[in-house]
């Protein structure tokens, strides 16, 4: 009887159990981190895309010459507070001049507040692949 109990216990530990997860959280095992099936792309037609679009539009609006950067790219890491206040803007790579212009624009930009906690959890501290406007 003890052997069967131990076998069942070991199987449960190795396979995992049905996870308890917040809304929209995807995970296979109870101890896994949450993964959301949202890309956060500006083109997404959901609340993640709306937030990303608002951030990108406000950043572009703060650029002194937004259309001068057509075809340029910059990878950055942004940390935002839930009220939209920028905490960090860290350049990770890309066109040097475009990245510098974005860093200066980020200081002036008024980013939209996050209206959903799940969106904030995913996008409040995230890497952004930014492209210049045509």
From TrEMBL:
Write out the coiled-coil annotation as residue ranges. Answer: none
GO CC term (a single one): membrane
Swiss-Prot/TrEMBL GO biological process terms:
bacteriocin transport
Kindly list the GO molecular function terms attached to this UniProt entry. toxin transmembrane transporter activity
Q: Which Pfam families match?
A: TolA
The name this protein carries in UniProt is TolA family protein
> Which source organism does the UniProt entry give?
Hafnia alvei FB1
């Amino acid at each position: 009887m003890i052997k069967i109990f131990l076998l069942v216990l070991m199987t449960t530990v190795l396979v995992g159990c049905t996870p308890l997860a917040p809304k929209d959280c995807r995970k296979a095992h109870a101890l896994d981190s949450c993964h959301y099936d949202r890309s956060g792309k500006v083109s997404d037609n959901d609340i993640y895309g709306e937030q990303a679009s608002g951030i990108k539009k406000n950043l572009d609006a703060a650029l002194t010459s937004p259309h001068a950067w057509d075809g340029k790219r910059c990878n950055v890491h942004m940390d935002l507070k839930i009220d939209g206040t920028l905490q960090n803007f860290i350049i990770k790579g890309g066109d040097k001049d475009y990245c510098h212009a974005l860093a200066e624009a980020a200081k002036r930009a008024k980013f939209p507040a996050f209206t959903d906690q799940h969106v904030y959890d995913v996008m409040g501290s995230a890497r952004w692949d930014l492209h210049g406007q045509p």
